[in-house]
Amino acid sequence: MTAVDLDALAATARTLLDGTHERFVAGAGAPSAVAKGPDDFATAVDLELERRLVEELQEQTQIPVHGEEFGGPPVESGTVWVLDPIDGTFNYSFGLPTAGTLLSLLVDGRPVIGLTWLPLIGQRFWAVDGGPVHRDGEALPALPTSALASSIVGFGAFNIDSRGRLPGAYRVQVLSDISRVSSRIRMHGSTGLDLAYTAAGTLGASIVFGHHAWDNAAGAMLVRAGGGIVTDLAGEPWTVTSTSVLAAAPGVHEELLQVLAGVGEPSSYTPTSRAREGVRR
After folding, report:
1. Which CATH number fits domain 148-280: 3.90.1150.10, 1.20.58.480, 2.40.50.140, 3.40.190.80?
2. Is residue 217 pLDDT above 50, yes or no?
């Protein structure tokens, strides 16, 4: 796609997301409507907004959409919009303002447009491939080289007893070791907000333990467009199939990789033993 195509598509996407502002704000506090797992659910507003935006995006751009709630075409190939109608659903349902809508355009798995709309806060972030990042009507400067000790770090959610790819005990050890360098760690409960604020320089870094494209693609695009570095937690370049995200300003990213190297491999952690060992250190 040409730059003109991307600019035009981004403008269309911005208009459509702006059109959902009133409904998003009015629906805040909506209860669970669909249980998706023991710790996950969707509200009726999630479903309504996804249906609406999928229809409008496909009609106005002739590009298919993959949404969190209803799925869609593969995100690894072809040209496809990826949509999370409400990122931070728990926050949204309980009335916290840290929730928003995430939209990205992927071409063969690479995000080339990223948009993060935070209606309850009244902020909009967007960028096309190559930057810059825009916050509302302002083009933001590229991220400067920074230090971890002076940075706020957005941190993903965890349960100490959880198992899986990135066990809870591993996540707690990451939290513990980062806190030895930066005491400014925040858990906002919204991947999109964390990554957008990293792209804008409000946060120095974001650590994301999730792997879904609808959570990560828009924010990864924004951080890259803003001059930040985006990898997985092992330091490999982030792709739409990556199982985690480490997004940070230059300098902060390198320091965090050093901390993560000291934590060790996630597979070596049990739900309790390594976390207890870390607390005793």
Report:
1. 3.40.190.80
2. yes
